[in-house]
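Justification of resources, computational component.

The compute hours requested in this renewal are based largely on the per-chain cost of generating structure records like the one below. Each record pairs the submitted sequence with a full structure-token output. That output is archived, and it is also reused by downstream analysis tasks.
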Amino acid sequence: MRKLASVKVFRLFALAFLVLWVVVTKGQSKYSNDFLNIGAGSRWMGMGNSGVALSNDASASYWNPAGLLSLEQKYDVTLMHASYFAGMAGYNHLGFAYKPDSTSALGITAIRFGVDDIPNTTDLMDSEGNISYDRIKMFSVADYAFLLSYAHQLPIKGLQIGGNAKIVYRSVGPFASAWGFGFDVGLRYQLSNWRFGANLRDATSTVNIWSFNNDELEITVGDSTFNTAPAENFELTIPSLSLGVGREFTLSARIKLAAEVGATTYFDGERNSLITSSFASIDPRAGVEVRYMEVVAIRAGIGNIQKTQGFTSDGYILQPNIGIGLRFKGISLDYALTNAGSTGYSRYSNIFSLSWSFDKVRIGK
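The structure output for this chain reads:
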């Protein structure tokens, strides 16, 4: 009887989820919360954003929360900074993970992507038409995300499940702000040296609700009003599914290799992805890492393959990533260099990460 009741509850939940997905996707906003697609951790970004199957540090909360059970130590702290557009934009990630036993793990993550010191010229001219540069004020446009993660070992050997409760805050200076809420669900299965991962991001869709400050936003010149607030004040980020398969190889007593291939499927319509349709677009990626004595690592990866349109013919661009890492006594320093494509201005991005994996902190002797 108990098993039958569980099946009924599962079917009811699945039906409710399907109905919710159909309803909310009607109001989907393409590229909503797109800053959460950048990545986390120089190690995995140097491998072409390939962390769904292999990530084993605090950044696993981002790639696949089920991966928190792969922590090598009881605690793990990861900090990352990336610079974009010649330093105009900054992307920062801070993660903490705790593994109390072999069957469960917890994680806390904070992410910020922002552009600071933007001149606000809406008050440059007073009501009489006089220009005064002293009226210029600086503001920031920033996106924040906070993840509370949990992972658990299922009764099936090698199968792990994890999830994120996600809070998003977006700020456009004094003009507008938004709060968003959503959930991620991840699975990972380990078979010998192989690892298979799946992460359903925004599983129930993430809803952002905006509020606008019309006093700051609107500009009145004569009888005309400009910069009016949008009619709608909410946007939806519908689910995307990331899949990955990876493996560790022992090449010699001192040299090991890790490789992962995977893809992310977006269900928000047609994109300029390698594989695309009106229903979904698929973005494949792959990465490899060679480690020497678990001290030095060299990494490379590709992803973000997009179609481009030219005057005479269409083509493709891709995002190549390379990286290097140093590790000593649980402390890792990683660097990744990303090229956002073969076209564009100031497309190179430098990504730095520092992580510390430990069982306990010793104070004194």
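The domain at 2-358 is CATH 2.40.160.40 (Porin). The chain has one domain: 2-358.
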